[in-house]
UniProtKB/TrEMBL annotation:
Keywords: Membrane, Transmembrane, Transmembrane helix. This is DUF4181 domain-containing protein. The chain crosses the membrane at residues 18-35, 47-67.
Length: 93
């Protein structure tokens, strides 16, 4: 059974979770749109959307784990974020 404070915290996190999921679904749709179209020259846009998807996902996980007090998962999400932002210019040119 959830306590009153946990129920309140779930209600405050719900709009953030819904907004993040809408953004992630929109990015996935954009990724498929640019990867699976006839024009191969705009595949780089699909790669940038893919990188942006992982940035948004890792930042959401980082904030969520930080608020919940999961130090190890916060460090993992921070590492993923730094890896993506550091090496993405070398991957997509």
């Amino acid at each position: 059974m959830l306590s009153v404070s946990e129920e309140k915290e779930n209600r405050t996190n719900k709009p953030l979770r819904i907004a993040t999921n809408i953004i992630l679904v929109a990015l996935i749709i954009g990724i498929f749109k640019f990867f699976l179209d006839e024009d191969y020259t705009n595949d780089s846009v699909g790669w940038w959307l893919f990188i942006l998807f992982w940035v948004v996902r890792s930042l959401y996980g980082l904030v969520n784990n930080l608020l919940e007090g999961h130090k190890w998962l916060t460090a993992v999400d921070l590492g993923i974020y730094l890896l993506i932002t550091r090496f993405s210019p070398y991957v997509v040119e």
